[in-house]
Design goal:
The chain is an alpha+beta fold and about 100 residues long. The protein has a domain of about 60 residues. The chain has two helices and three strands, in the order αβαββ. The longest helix is centred in the first third of the chain and has 12 residues.
Length: about 100
């Protein structure tokens, strides 16, 4: 499955990041630094995406039916106050009926 492309011919950061995590398997560190509150909110949004209607999922690129684990922590390679998010796909989306 190819990643959705925006109106400028690019895929979003989260679409690319989630696709990389799907292919990698296991825990993957998201390659960006965030404030503590943003990291915590992103992790929460990712974990709880399967409880939301697909049209209201807050992180672009999560497929209907997928379940993700996410955690956040202080960044060991950033400035004081920088935090990172770790993600892992725990349940794949069901294949569409044909």
């Amino acid at each position: 499955m190819t990643a959705p492309i925006d109106g400028r011919g690019r895929t979003s950061f989260w679409v690319r990041t989630l696709e990389a995590a799907r292919q990698q398997g296991g825990w993957m560190r998201v390659p960006r630094h965030y404030t503590q509150s943003t990291a915590a909110q992103l992790a929460s949004d990712i974990v709880n995406a399967d409880h939301r209607h697909p049209s209201t999922v807050r992180v672009k690129g999560i497929r209907p039916g997928e379940q993700w684990a996410a955690r956040w922590s202080a960044a060991d390679d950033g400035a004081p106050g920088d935090h990172v998010v770790w993600i892992r796909l725990t349940s794949f989306a069901p294949l569409p009926d044909r």
